[in-house]
């Protein structure tokens, strides 16, 4: 194993451990830290292992295709791109409906109560969340958990077990958002893995990941006045 890969694995392990030990929820609720600072710290933490991934690829002359960075105009990618475009159109339409539907806002606020502490409540927070955190999460988490970990594990454990383990690690990295969100993220991770394997490119999952996070951030901002946080 190359030294650069050892450093990369260490950076990923540190990412998981720091998320498991994270006290952001308590600190935000007790006003010990601002939500914007939590966003910035999360963005920095996300890019940390990606830097080591880039270093590893460079010094080992490993092609970008090994982590899924590729693009060919075959039917799998074009189908994924088409479905992604339809999803974006639907999200835009749904957000327009949400703005004018208070009953829908109330229901959505109830659904997000357990992790509402992490969602943006002001315009500056929403900008950081959508343009900074969402984009960073989409790029970094897909490159690390699908692009690198899934591919690395698949060489030794097979695809099915690799999908489960990489998605479990992906879920654990969201422990600071609550136990329920860990399970939810684990399921989402499996879906992202299947999309990646089906489309044969990491680019589609990256865009989808960003779109989902941006949609969640804007939705939470719209319903912010209806949210009653729970422990």
TrEMBL record:
Instruction: Show the InterPro entries listed in the entry.
Output: Rce1/LyrA-like_dom
- Record keyword Plastid present: no
* Pfam (any one): Rce1-like
Q: Which residues cross the membrane?
A: 39-61, 73-93, 126-145, 157-180, 186-212
Q: Does the keyword Glycoprotein apply?
A: no
Keyword list (alphabetical) reads: Membrane, Transmembrane, Transmembrane helix
> Which ranges carry the CAAX prenyl protease 2/Lysostaphin resistance protein A-like domain?
125-214
This protein is called Type II CAAX endopeptidase family protein
The organism is Thalassotalea castellviae
Lineage, please? Bacteria, Pseudomonadati, Pseudomonadota, Gammaproteobacteria, Alteromonadales
């Amino acid at each position: 194993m190359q030294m650069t890969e050892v450093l990369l694995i260490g950076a990923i392990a540190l990412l998981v451990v720091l998320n498991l030990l994270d006290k952001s929820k308590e600190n935000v609720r007790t006003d010990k830290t601002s939500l914007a600072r939590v966003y910035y710290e999360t963005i920095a933490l996300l890019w940390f292992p990606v830097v080591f991934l880039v270093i590893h690829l460079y010094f080992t002359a490993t092609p970008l295709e090994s982590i899924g960075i590729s693009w060919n105009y075959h039917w799998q990618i074009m189908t994924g791109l088409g479905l992604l475009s339809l999803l974006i159109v639907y999200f835009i339409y749904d957000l327009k409906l949400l703005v004018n539907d208070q009953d829908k806002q109330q229901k959505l606020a109830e659904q997000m109560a357990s992790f509402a502490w992490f969602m943006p409540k002001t315009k500056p927070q929403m900008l950081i969340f959508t343009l900074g955190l969402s984009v960073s999460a989409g790029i970094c988490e897909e490159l690390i958990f699908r692009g690198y970990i899934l591919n690395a594990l698949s060489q030794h454990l097979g695809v099915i077990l690799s999908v489960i383990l990489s998605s479990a690690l992906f879920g654990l990295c969201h422990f600071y958002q609550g136990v329920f969100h860990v399970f939810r993220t684990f399921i989402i991770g499996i879906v992202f893995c299947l999309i990646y394997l089906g489309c044969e490119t990491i680019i589609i999952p990256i865009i989808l990941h960003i779109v989902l996070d941006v949609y969640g951030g804007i939705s939470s901002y719209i319903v912010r006045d209806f949210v009653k946080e729970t422990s």
